[in-house]
Amino acid sequence: MRKSSSTPKATSLVILAGLLGASACSLAQQPTEQPTSYSAVRITESFESIRTRMTADKAAVMQRQHDLLEQRYDLGNHASSDVTMSLGKPVQEGVRIKLPAGVTWDKLGAMTPAQIRTAGLFPAGMLPLPHPNQAEGGIAFPQFHIDAINAQEQRDLTRFDLDFDFPDHFLPEFPAPMYLTTRPDLGDASKGKLVTIENYYELFNGVLNPKQIEGIRLLVTPFAQQQYNQTEDRRTVRPSRGVTCFDCHANGHTNAATHLVGDIRPQEFRHRLDTPTLRGVNIQRLYGSQRALKTLEDFTEFEQRAAYFDGDPVMATKKGANVLERGSQVQAMAEFEELLDFPPAPKLGIDGRLDPALATDAELRGQKLFFGKAECASCHVPPYYTDNTMHNLKTERFFAPQMINGRMASQDGPIKTFPLRGIKDSPPYLHDGRLLTLEDTVEFFNLVLQTKLTKDEKLDLVAFMRQL
After folding, report:
1. pLDDT by residue (tens digit) across 238-278?
2. Residue 396 pLDDT
3. Backbone angles phi, psi at 397, to 5 degrees
């Protein structure tokens, strides 16, 4: 029998060459990763590995965010000596946005948007604000709320991957008072307490009707959410019962908890959202981060079907969506929410304007500016100071697109006109909380609207808004 001309060594080399060629061919033919709107449902990394990795990264993540805030703002505690929120927490005053070296507000106000953009002089504190960890996202609670819920319910809202970023003195008072349209005689219906599943019944039995009591029960009942759940991709050490509506809208108001809107992809384009107050929600007509929902019932149902899970119904199914029954549960929740009233404003008349007999000269001058030169009333219409629509400020006129801590700052798009009634109780400001004080807000709109207010006019405008 004829022997093969190939030696074992030669044969091995041929086989190895073939394998290497096939491997190279395989690598060359691998498709590039395509963008996707979907989260990974099957997690291949163990929970312990995820927790260990993210816990180790947490300090660096928060230091990066802290450095950004320090670069943008004066974060000092400069409280007003004579202006407080409804229960007495001092209001932070003064412009906190830092300007580039050699730049003044008057100089900026005299420039066109194109000139500001070309020179790169748009203040960093007016740019879109990233989430504490933009790549990860999810709800981040102030520590005072975490501590209060842990004490009352033994439910831990601590995340192992990130913390809340703003100092407490820039946030709403806590627990906030609750005002009811049906019982204004009560004043603070929550009696200075944080309303939770532990005390809602004793607080409201005899004050609300049975349907409204059921509504508030559901609003303080924990349900699974993207980061707070019992699966392996949660962001709490222990499996979590979830969060409640009132974990963000504490006492029907806000504790300034933040997260990312669920209706934008990819991740770097998702807007940070500063939790808006639910006070006066009965007079509003647009709901949701992009205002696509037209009734409070729609919003209440949507929140727990999808918004709790970044707008991903597949994740909602995996983690435990709370599918509310429309005719009873949704309606009961909405009925209670629509009882939440604005705080008292003793200087306002029934038309929402100042009573001249009660207002100071500065407040009256500010009101005249509000309805005139400052152009505020073109969107913020009395008596509740909203036009119930959306407006695009086109802030991209002032800056070039840029990546900021994982957030692509490009365009904000249309933003809802939030009511200004009770505005001093609801810092920080704008939809993502980038403006820390009312003074910052006045500087922002003076620049964006090009209204050329003087220093004294800006102070008068702030004095007026503090009375709303």
Report:
1. 999 999 999 999 999 999 999 999 889 999 999 999 999 99
2. 97
3. -60, -25
Residue type, position 270, single letter: R
Greater model confidence, 14 or 344: 344
Query: How far is Cα 224 from Cα 427, in angstroms, rounded to an integer?
Result: 28
Cα angle, residue 269 at apex, residues 264 and 270 outer, rounded to 5°: 50
Residue 216: both structure tokens together: 């508030």
Q: Say what angle helices 438-449 and 455-465 make with each other, to 10 degrees.
A: 120
Strands (E) across 256-379 are located at 258-260, 272-274
Residue 63, burial from CB neighbour count under 10 angstroms (0-12, 13-18, 19+): exposed
Rounded to whole angstroms, how far apart are CA atoms 64 and 403? 14
Average pLDDT, integer, range 374-394 = 97
Q: Give the C-alpha separation, 86 to 89, whole Å.
A: 8
- What is the C-alpha separation between 79 and 222, in angstroms, rounded? 35
Token look-up 């990819």 returns: 266
- Please give the pLDDT value at position 305: 84
Ramachandran angles phi, psi of 303, nearest 5°: -55, -50
DSSP-based three-state secondary structure for 332: helix
Q: Is a pLDDT exceeding 70 seen at residue 10?
A: no
Comparing C-alpha atoms, which of 416, 334, 342, 424 is closest to residue 383?
Answer: 342
* Residue 415, helix vs strand vs coil: strand
**Contact at 8 Å (CB) between 370 and 448?**
no
Q: Which residue has the higher pLDDT, 204 or 290?
A: 204
Report whether 241 contacts 149 (CB < 8 A): no
State how far the alpha carbon of 214 is from the alpha carbons of 249, 303, 306, 423, in Å.
17, 18, 22, 29
- Domains of the chain plus CATH, in order, are 48-72+137-337 (no CATH), 79-130+359-449+456-465 (1.10.760)
Say if residues 338 and 211 touch (Cβ distance below 8 Å): no
Find the Cα–Cα–Cα–Cα dihedral 421, 178, 224, 300, rounded to 10°.
Answer: -50
Burial of 99 (0-12, 13-18, 19+ CB in 10 A): middle
Q: By three-state DSSP, how is residue 293 classified?
A: strand
Give the Cα separation of 136 and 227 in Å (integer). 10
DSSP strand pairing (272-274 vs 258-260): antiparallel
Contacts 24+ apart (CB under 8 A), 114-121: 114/397, 116/398, 116/399, 116/447, 117/397, 117/398, 117/399, 117/400, 120/399, 120/400
